[in-house]
Design brief:
The chain is of the alpha+beta class. The chain is built from nine helices and 19 strands. A hairpin with a 5-residue loop joins strand 7 (95-96) and strand 8. The model has no long low-confidence stretch (mean pLDDT 91).
Amino acid sequence: MLTHEENELLCRVGPGTPMGEVLRRYWLPVLTTEELPEPDCPPVRAKLLGEELVAFRDSDGNVGLVDNNCPHRRASLFFGRNEESGIRCVYHGWKFNVNGDCVDMPSEPAESNFKDKVKIKSYPCVDKGGTIWTYMGPADLQPPFLNFLALQLPDDHLITNRVLSDCNFIQSMEGNLDTSHISYLHRNLADLKMDDFDDGTDVLGFPSPRMSTRIRGYSRDAKLMVQPTSYGWRYVGQRETPNGHHHLRITTAIFPVYQMIARLPDQGPGILMMVPRDDETCWRWSVGARTDRPFTEEERADRAGQSANKTDIHGRGEKGKWNDYMMSRDDQKNLSFTGIKGIGTQDQAVTESMQPISDKMNEHLGTSDRAIIFNRRILLNAARAMMEGQEPLRHDPDVMGRINSHEEIIPAGDDWRKYGAFAGESEGLPV
């Protein structure tokens, strides 16, 4: 359990808050490329870490992310004209480029140098992988852009998805870091009848997806162990297989908000990010990848059509609290553990049901919550250090470019830390 003060420190992310300042030291996703499809297209509203912003793509294709309010009389730049390499406020014509410089002030005399003294808050952006990323921290501390395995691939090998969630980012993040719930929340009832299933892959090496499902039903009390790393930490959900081996699902947590959920090697690298929109809402971002070839347009359309919670361009889902996530009690009796369709929607239902900021003082955490406890500890430590003027972890781009998650069947009793790790990562003790 956490105290009220710890919960506030963990969950509040606005400007000037310790956790908000920690998160501002890293590149975060803010919009999809699709929302700014071409130069001089209409500007769009954005909200990240409690800040109201406006994004635009200038005449050269560069993305600008600026304060929503014009510094003159505070009118919203969402109504601005995106023209000739800048966004122009419709109130008095003041114009700003992607760097926040005022490049035209027609309401002042031609001989005035006032425009040279005015600047609007702006944040650097990178358009990569169908996602527009931004860095909101001090300019002199700006880190290199993210070097994740997926982001090393060409954009046409990537698919990006974003869903708005009505809860604090910590709740959504902890859903990703909880391997125990997959034996319950995401289970189809038909999977409970797999006692006789055997496709020959319960052997040392990589199981089939169906065998992985069979093992998660066979062994529902996974042993959790956490390993600190130079970039954050990783943890294993270790289960015994029907044939007496050990099944590993290793999830990687890259400080502060990036996760790589356990997956088989042929499923391609992926990234999940639970990014705070404000204190009580967050964006559930996912980036999936193919390493062998680009996604076809048919595959992209199929992926969008089969989305667990179909969304519009702004990430608004068709399912939510207002319709109980389209839960079917008949399906709950006959088809699935929840009666809710889609893994992501099942996650949303439970994390949003905790209220926008959950009451962590009245939780009762057990051994299956070891990863959640560890994650809270390192985030709180970073926020407390920020209050003392200490900067958070800086990532090594070379290390970042080698991190992945892992799933494998290993000999019983073997050390799980040797698996799915690169040289140097297998050091450190489970906690």
